[in-house]
Known about the structure:
With 111 residues, the protein is an all-alpha fold.
Amino acid sequence: MADEISREQMHAYLDDALSESETARIERLMRDSSEYRTLLIQVREERDRGEHSLGGIWRRERLSCPSRTDLNGFLHGILEANHHTYIEFHLKTIACPTCLANLDDLQEKQA
Ligand SMILES: [Zn+2]
């Protein structure tokens, strides 16, 4: 859903890892909703405690971009479902510029 912020997105927001439009969307939603402001506070507290939350695991994972082989597998839709979802999130939500460039390159070679 377009009008939701997940915990993971909140972490990405705090990491400054989101695209400009996503950052703007989250800031707008937080302005309008005390629920999201509360979520932000909770996520910040979690981070301060260094909790091994899903968000924490995800942040560690995010540090390693998928390999070119993985991106190629993603392109061909042959990856295991969890892996595919992770790469999709990395590309679409995080919009990692390195991986997007890699993906473009792979697509061009394929064409
Ligand atoms: Zn990446």
